C-alpha cells in the first residue's frame, strides 16, 4: 500500500549510492589490517556475514566491502535483514577502522547488537561523507567533537541508545543533507545552531525524550522534505516559520508531543504534503478550512487533541489513512471524501459523533482495509456485510455503538488480529474462529452459550446474557 513512501526512501538511497563502481584487485595492507581488526571486534556473527573476510584474500571482494579505482576501501556496507533475527552482529566497532583512510561511507544497518560508545575512529577519517549506523545498541553521549566531521553529508544513528543532549557543535556540520537521530534516549532541547544546516532535506528526531518549544528556525531549511519530531515532549505552539517549508515539504510529523494552540491556517499552502501527523497533542480550536487545499495528502492524523467542528471538506482524490479520533467533533457522517477513496487502508473515526446505519455506508473500495475504528459513535445495523468484503482486515474496533448482529455470521479473516465489538447489541454464540485473534472484546452484549477455548481474559466476555465456560463460570449441566 505505501508504495510511494517506499519509492521515496529508495530515491534517497539511490542518491547516496550512485556512481559506485565495485572493483576487484589486490588489497592495501592498511585496509586489510583495519577490516580484520573490525572483524576481531565482532563477538558473534550468527549468519556468517564476515566469514569470507580472511587474511591474504582480496579485501575489495569481501562481503560488504567496496573499493575505489585505486583499490582502496571506499565503503563498508553491512546490513542485517529485518525479517531474519539471525542476520545480526554482536560486539563493538573497532577503532582500527580509522586505518581505512579512503573510507567515505559507512553503512552498518539493522545489525541489532553493535554496542559501545560513539565510534571515535570516525574522527580520523577525513573523507567521511555518509555514516549510517542504524538499529543497533550504541550508547553514551554523542560527543561535542561530532562537530569536527564537517564533510559529513549524512549522519544517522537511527534507533540506538544514545543519551544526553544533541551537542550544539552539530551546527558545524553544514554539509549535512540528512540528520537522523530518531529512536534514541536523547534529552534536552533542539540546539538552535541546527539552523546553520541549510542543506537539510531530512531531519528526523522522533522517539526521543527531547523537550522545550520547537525553535522558530524553519525558514533556514529551504530544501527540507521530511520533518519528523514525533514522540518527544515538545511544548508550545507550532512555530510560524514552519510556513517557510511550503510548498516542498512532504512529511510533517509532530504527533505524540504536548503542543498547544491552534492548527495554523498556513498548512493549506503545503501543496505537496503527503503526511500530516499532529495526533496526540493538546491542540485546540477548529481545523482550518485551508486544509481543503491539501489535495495530495495521503495520511492525516489529528487524533487525540481537543479540536472542534466544523471539519473542512477535503479535495483529495484518495486518502490512505485517516485518524480523527478522540477530539470534540460531531461529524454526523463518514466524510464523502473518505467513502470515495479508492486507496484507503486505515480509517479511524472513534468518538467522532457519527450517526449511521452501517449497511448504508457504501465505501468505494473495501479490499485494502487493514484497520477500521468506529468506536464510541452512534452506529446501528450490522458490520457483517462490511467485514465480508475486507479480505485483509487486521483490526476492527466498534465498541460503544448500537450494532445488532449475530456474532456467528461475522466473517473472521485470517489476517484479523484485533476485534472489539464490546458494548453493543451483539447476539448469538462466540464462534471458535475467534481463537486465532490476538485480542478480542465482546463484553457487554447479548451473547449466550458455551465459550470456545481461547486465551482471552474474563473481561473480554463479561456483561453478556448467558455466556458460560472458562474463563467465566462453568456452564450448567442440562
Ligand atoms: C542462523 O544462521 C546459521 C548460519 O547461517 C544457521 O546455521 C542457523 O541454523 C541459523 N539459525 C536460525 C535460528 O535461523
Ligand atoms: C548482544 O551482544 C552481547 C554482548 O556483546 C551478548 O552478550 C548478547 O548475547 C548479544 N545478544 C544477541 C541477541 O545476540
Ligand atoms: C575537534 O577539533 C578541535 C579543534 O577544532 C580539536 O581541538 C579537537 O581535538 C578535535 N577533536 C577530535 C576528537 O578530533
Ligand atoms: C516518523 O516517526 C514515526 C515514529 O514515531 C514513524 O512511525 C514514521 O514512519 C516516521 N516517518 C518518517 C517519514 O520518517
Ligand atoms: C486554496 O488555494 C487557492 C490558491 O491556490 C486560494 O485562492 C484559496 O483561497 C485556497 N483555499 C483555501 C480554502 O485556503
Ligand atoms: C458474504 O459473502 C458470501 C459469499 O462470499 C455470501 O454468500 C454472503 O451472502 C455474504 N453475506 C453478507 C451479509 O454479505
Ligand atoms: C473489554 O471492554 C470493556 C468495556 O469496554 C473493558 O472494561 C474491558 O477492560 C475490556 N477487556 C479487554 C480484555 O479488552
How does this model look, in words?
This protein is mainly beta and 478 residues long. The chain has a domain of 162 residues: Alpha-Beta Horseshoe (Leucine-rich repeat, LRR (right-handed beta-alpha superhelix)). 8% of the residues lie in helices and 24% in strands. The protein contains four helices and 34 strands. The strands form six sheets. It has a 17-stranded mixed sheet, with no helix packed on it. Strands 8-10-12-14-16-18 form a six-stranded parallel sheet, with no helix packed on it. It has a three-stranded mixed sheet with strand order 1-4-6. α3 links the parallel β23 and β24. The chain is globular. The two termini are 52 Å apart. About 4% of the residues have low confidence. Bound molecules: 2-acetamido-2-deoxy-beta-D-glucopyranose (7 copies). One 2-acetamido-2-deoxy-beta-D-glucopyranose binds next to loops. The site of one 2-acetamido-2-deoxy-beta-D-glucopyranose has 7 residues, from β1, β4 and β6.
Question: Can you lay out the helices and strands and say which pair or pack?
Answer:
Layout: H1 3-17, H2 29-40, E1 42-44, E2 65-67, E3 73-79, E4 89-92, E5 105-109, E6 112-115, E7 130-134, E8 139-141, E9 154-156, E10 161-164, E11 178-180, E12 185-188, E13 202-204, E14 209-213, E15 226-228, E16 233-236, E17 251-253, E18 258-259, E19 275-277, E20 284-286, E21 299-301, E22 306-308, E23 321-323, H3 336-339, E24 346-348, E25 355-357, E26 371-373, E27 378-381, H4 384-388, E28 395-397, E29 402-403, E30 418-420, E31 427-428, E32 439-441, E33 446-450, E34 466-468
Parallel strand pairs: 3-5, 4-6, 5-7, 7-9, 8-10, 9-11, 10-12, 11-13, 12-14, 13-15, 14-16, 15-17, 16-18, 17-19, 19-21, 20-22, 21-23, 23-24, 24-26, 25-27, 26-28, 27-29, 28-30, 30-32, 31-33, 33-34
Antiparallel strand pairs: 1-4, 2-3
Bound molecules: 2-acetamido-2-deoxy-beta-D-glucopyranose (7 copies).
Amino acid at each position: 500500500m505505501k508504495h510511494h513512501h517506499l519509492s521515496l526512501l529508495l530515491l534517497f538511497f539511490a542518491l547516496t549510492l550512485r556512481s559506485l563502481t565495485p572493483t576487484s584487485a589486490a588489497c592495501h595492507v592498511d585496509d586489510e589490517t583495519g577490516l580484520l581488526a573490525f572483524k576481531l571486534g565482532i563477538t558473534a556473527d550468527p549468519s556468517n556475514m564476515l566469514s569470507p573476510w580472511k587474511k591474504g584474500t582480496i579485501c575489495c571482494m569481501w562481503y560488504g566491502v567496496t573499493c575505489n579505482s585505486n583499490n582502496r576501501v571506499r565503503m563498508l556496507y553491512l546490513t542485517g535483514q529485518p525479517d531474519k533475527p539471525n542476520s545480526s552482529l554482536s560486539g563493538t566497532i573497532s577503532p582500527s577502522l580509522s586505518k581505512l583512510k579512503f573510507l567515505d561511507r559507512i553503512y552498518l544497518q539493522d545489525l541489532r547488537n553493535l554496542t559501545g560508545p560513539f565510534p571515535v575512529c570516525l574522527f580520523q577519517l577525513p573523507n567521511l561523507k555518509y555514516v549510517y549506523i542504524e538499529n543497533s545498541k550504541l550508547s553514551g553521549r554523542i560527543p561535542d567533537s561530532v562537530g569536527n566531521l564537517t564533510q559529513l553529508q549524512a549522519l544517522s544513528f537511527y534507533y540506538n541508545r544514545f543519551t544526553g543532549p544533541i551537542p550544539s557543535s552539530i551546527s558545524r556540520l553544514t554539509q549535512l543533507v540528512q540528520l537522523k537521530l530518531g529512536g534514541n534516549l536523547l534529552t534536552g532541547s533542539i540546539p538552535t545552531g541546527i539552523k546553520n544546516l541549510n542543506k537539510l532535506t531530512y531531519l528526523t528526531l522522533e522517539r526521543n525524550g527531547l523537550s522545550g518549544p520547537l525553535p522558530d528556525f524553519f525558514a533556514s531549511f529551504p530544501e527540507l522534505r521530511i520533518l519528523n519530531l514525533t514522540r518527544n515532549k515538545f511544548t508550545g505552539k507550532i512555530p510560524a516559520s514552519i510556513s517557510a517549508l511550503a510548498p516542498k515539504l512532504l512529511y510533517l510529523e509532530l504527533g505524540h508531543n504536548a503542543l498547544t494552540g491552534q492548527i495554523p491556517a498556513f498548512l493549506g499552502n503545503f501543496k505537496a504534503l503527503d503526511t500530516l501527523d499532529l495526533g496526540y497533542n493538546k491542540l485546540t480550536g477548529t481545523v482550518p478550512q485551508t486544509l481543503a487545499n491539501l489535495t495530495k495528502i495521503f495520511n492525516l492524523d489529528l487524533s487525540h487533541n481537543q479540536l472542534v467542528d466544523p471539519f473542512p471538506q477535503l479535495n483529495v482524490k484518495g486518502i490512505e489513512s485517516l485518524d480523527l479520533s478522540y477530539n470534540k467533533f460531531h461529524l454526523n457522517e463518514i466524510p464523502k471524501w473518505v467513502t470515495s477513496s479508492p486507496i484507503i487502508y486505515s480509517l479511524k473515526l472513534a468518538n467522532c459523533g457519527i450517526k449511521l446505519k452501517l449497511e448504508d455506508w457504501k465505501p468505494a473500495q473495501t479490499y485494502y482495509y487493514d484497520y477500521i475504528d468506529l468506536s464510541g459513535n452512534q452506529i446501528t445495523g450490522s458490520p457483517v456485510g462490511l467485514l465480508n468484503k475486507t479480505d485483509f482486515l487486521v483490526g476492527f474496533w466498534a465498541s460503544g455503538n448500537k450494532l445488532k448482529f449475530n456474532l456467528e455470521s461475522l466473517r473472521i479473516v485470517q489476517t484479523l488480529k484485533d476485534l472489539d465489538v464490546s458494548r453493543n447489541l451483539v447476539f448469538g454464540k462466540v464462534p471458535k474462529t475467534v481463537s486465532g485473534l490476538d485480542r478480542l472484546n465482546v463484553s457487554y452484549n447479548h451473547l449466550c452459550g458455551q465459550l470456545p477455548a481461547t486465551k482471552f481474559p474474563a473481561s473480554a466476555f463479561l456483561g453478556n446474557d448467558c455466556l458460560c465456560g472458562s474463563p467465566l463460570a462453568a456452564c450448567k449441566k442440562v
